Amino acid sequence: MEVIEIIATSIIAAAVGRIIKKYSKKKDNKVKVPVYLPYTKEDLLYELAFALMAILAWGLALWIFRRAHFSWDQFLTCLLITIGGLSFLLLHLVSHQIRVPKGKEHLAESAKYVLAKSNRLVSLFCFPFMAAYLISKNPTLFGISWDFEWVSLGILVLAGVISITLQTKYSKQFHFDMTDSDLMC
What we know:
By secondary structure, this protein is mainly alpha-helical. It has helices spanning about 5-25, 40-65, 70-95, 110-125, 125-135, 140, 150-175, and strands at about 30-35, 95-100. A two-stranded antiparallel sheet has the order 1-2. The longest helix is centred in the N-terminal third of the chain and has 27 residues, at about 40-65.
């Protein structure tokens, strides 16, 4: 199974899981709290890092497309990876609600900040993933004989581990589970 197939399968499974969870009749003790995070210098630094990594990754992609052959599949995959990273980077600017347990409404802004930081960290992993994907699809161009798909899968796992670790750390501090999928920004 290729890395892209694994990603597509996990996205579909997550979407189906969210739909099932949304329409299940289980009663939860969560309330939606509107939270508007201010734009800070930290946001600007993440956006600059994202832009610099985008320039480097797309430069590599254009070099590969020029040296090898232009492939629509690879181009569309790179475009989808970039859009995915951009959505993780800017999700907290679009989503202005967070679900927190009743009685923990005072922690909504802090929880939203932690989830936004986690999402921004994940967004920075999209371009190393894109580079590993491109190298795995064009190994002869680089003289590489080993499978780079495992490297790209490792990058995805590392991004997930960092995100979940950050959320778990603050879940213990806030005394409620932030790793729950409906709490994502």
